[in-house]
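Key result, reporting period 2: structure in, sequence out.
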């Protein structure tokens, strides 16, 4: 097999599997690297490189996810996946930015076991037949079908019922930033679902609320308080897209990234907000600021 010539073409496929499995850019990149090493060392005759790369990557991802379970159980506060921005210039990160890489969807995948997650990704995202999935996860085709059915039902219970167009989602995001900038609490509450959930991931490395915040009134007031505090530090909001969804980037006065807030829209309102503040999860996006240091200086 000619891996050298196929390397650049295989990387996006392998990264897309590993990232959906782990929700981590750094771990996905490590998995892809390890998969290539194993493929290079293998003496096995391979007819289909894509299928072979998928198998090796998935198996490593399953093992990695199993070992990561304990770390995530010990994680400080809520765990959220690492964001991928539309401006990411790494060719291997240019995965299909559909609903299966949205922050909300990756959070839902956390409820699945490693094998369930693998079966779901291979079937739902890559469209693999159960006969092809079976040898990858070392299960029968019938078992894989049952696993997928259970996983899809669990995921479907938490997915949006009315998914608006990208234009509508972007419009809501723009209105939300405008309302925040104008300290318009009534405007914010109109854009938020009554049962909106705000989740922050600081991982103990950045100041963040330790439990999800619920309700339009509470979330709107909390965000306005953060906005007023941030203005004193020269913090600004920048509209962007993370994981195919509207997002707000929080930047310091020096332009360093402080956080990424992904907005999950259902119908005409924002139903979930995921704020990644842990600098370890933002390093692949450029220069990252230190929120603890910023607060200490002020």
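The corresponding designed sequence is given below.
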């Amino acid at each position: 097999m000619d891996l050298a010539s196929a390397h650049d073409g295989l990387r996006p496929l392998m990264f897309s599997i590993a990232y959906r499995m782990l929700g981590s850019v750094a771990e996905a990149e490590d998995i892809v690297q390890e998969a290539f090493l194993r493929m290079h060392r293998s003496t096995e005759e391979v007819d289909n490189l894509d299928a072979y790369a998928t198998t090796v990557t998935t198996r490593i991802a399953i093992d990695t996810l199993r070992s990561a379970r304990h770390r995530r159980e010990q994680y400080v506060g809520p765990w959220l996946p690492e964001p991928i921005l539309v401006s990411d210039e790494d060719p291997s990160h240019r995965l299909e930015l559909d609903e299966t890489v949205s922050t909300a969807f990756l959070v839902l995948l956390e409820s699945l076991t490693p094998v369930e997650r693998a079966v779901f990704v291979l079937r739902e995202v890559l469209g693999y037949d159960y006969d092809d999935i079976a040898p990858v996860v070392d299960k029968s085709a019938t078992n894989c079908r049952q696993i997928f059915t259970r996983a899809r039902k669990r995921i479907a219970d938490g997915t949006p019922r009315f998914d608006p167009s990208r234009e509508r989602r972007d419009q809501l995001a723009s209105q939300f930033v405008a309302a925040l900038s104008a300290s318009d609490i009534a405007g914010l509450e109109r854009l938020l679902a009554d049962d909106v959930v705000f989740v922050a991931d600081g991982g103990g490395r950045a100041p963040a609320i330790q439990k999800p915040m619920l309700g339009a009134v509470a979330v709107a007031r909390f965000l306005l308080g953060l906005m007023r505090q941030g203005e004193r530090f020269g913090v600004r909001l920048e509209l962007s897209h993370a994981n195919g969804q509207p997002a707000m980037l929080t930047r310091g006065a020096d332009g360093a990234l402080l956080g990424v807030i992904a907005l999950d829209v259902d119908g005409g309102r924002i139903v979930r907000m995921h704020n990644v503040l842990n600098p370890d999860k933002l390093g692949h996006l450029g220069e990252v600021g230190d929120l603890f240091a910023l607060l200490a200086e002020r």
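The longest strand covers residues 192-201. The first helix runs from residue 3 to 22. This case is discussed further under Risks and Mitigation.
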